[in-house]
Amino acid sequence: RRGAARVPDPAAQAGAAPPTHQQERHQVVKKYLQKVKSPPEEDCTICMEPLGGPSGYKGPGVGPVSKAESVGRLTQCGHQYHFQCLVAMYNNGNKDGSLQCPTCKTIYGVKTGNQPAGKMEYHVIPHSLPGHPDCKSIRIIYNIPPGIQGPEHPNPGKPFTARGFPRHCYLPDSEKGRKVLRLLLVAWDRRLIFSVGTSSTTGESDTVIWNEVHHKTEFGSNLTGHGFPDPGHLDNVLEELRAQGITEEDALVEK
Question: Which UniProt keywords apply (predicted)?
Answer without folding.
Answer: Cytoplasm, Metal-binding, Notch signaling pathway, Repeat, Transferase, Zinc, Zinc-finger
